[in-house]
Amino acid sequence: MEENFTMVAKTLFGFEELLANELTKLGAQDVKKGVRNVSFSGDKGFMYKANLGLRTAVKILKPIHSFIVNSEKDLYDKIYAMDWEPYLKSTGTLAVDATIHSDLFTHSLYIAQKTKDAIVDKFRDTTGQRPNVDLKFPDLKINVHIDRRQCTISLDSSGDSLHKRGYKTATNIAPINEVLAAGLIMLSGWDGQTDFMDPMCGSGTMLIEAAMIACNIPPNLMRKEFAFERWQDWDVDLFEKIEESLLKKTRDFHHKIIGYDKAPSAVAKTKDNVKNAQLEDFIEVKHEDFFKTQKGGEEKLHMVFNPPYGERLNIDMEQFYKDIGDTLKQNYPGTDAWFITSNLDALKHVGLRPSRKIQLFNAKLESRLVKYVMYEGSKKGKYMK
């Protein structure tokens, strides 16, 4: 039996609860929420499973050593004293990144450099050879985290951020991050039991993440590589077994996922990405201006979208947000509409009262995920007063 060890899954602000629930459902033990992270324990197979199966994680770290650090020399000495041979060959390659919340240490690049020096010097002194740095495809990616004086050294099992699912070849000017999209859909409570729509679908991220949630498809099946595949204890048979067990849990989906965009280029990009994700059977994409559309049929509709914030586009934001409100009110009865925006002023012009508001961040922009409930009824719609 593989032994259990502690891991840390990093996430976006506001997604800690979602990630903790995902981990519990996957079978993690000792699940504990932090800020932008959740710690848990599991074995090597579970580390593979977490990387493949978590929708709201951006990294899975495996802490290997923790100590108090009082100076840069102290950091160097303690990292030098560690036994690195179980993790890296003297002829291998490494990369180090650092995150720092400390008055004593203020420069993360310098801390990463100091850590790298200590590891390289240790190998040179004990074996006569030294590993090289490779920032793109290292054999070992090391994370240094300093919180005040507490230093934790972890191995990064993911490599590239887990939002890089592998299905996107085409993006538009402001693509939404895949982890953010999945988290928004999960926060909205969509469970695949109704039709889903993104009326401003951009490059299709929201549609693809919604389809994967509906069918319970592991989000990172299409990734080219995880960092753990270069580790000395990489077990390809175990990985394939885990992959197979996750694929057995996929399920059927009996509703529609619909995407609109008024830019033909966005529609073409979305279709490309949907095809890459092999989800054409579930997703329908149309060249439409949302403001000129109306809901088809009587069925309940679940809508999640990411309208422009005015950061990069030259449009009258007040009018644009008023048009969103008017279109929902007049043309989309029986709809739960959710969208995220960082333009908190423009939000006031929607002209509807949200039934929920959740604080989040889109990259570094403080944002709100808002929900508007459009009731069935007259064409004008009895919406939330």
UniProtKB/TrEMBL annotation:
Transferase recorded as keyword:
yes
According to the entry, every stretch annotated as the THUMP domain falls at 46-157
* Pfam annotation, one family: UPF0020
Entry keywords, A to Z: Methyltransferase, RNA-binding, Transferase
Q: Does the keyword Ligase apply?
A: no
Check the record and name the SUPFAM superfamilies matching this protein. Answer: S-adenosyl-L-methionine-dependent methyltransferases
What InterPro entries does the database record attribute to this sequence?
Answer: RlmKL-like_Mtase, RlmKL-like_Mtase_CS, RlmL_1st, SAM-dependent_MTases_sf, THUMP_dom
Q: What is this protein called?
A: THUMP domain-containing protein
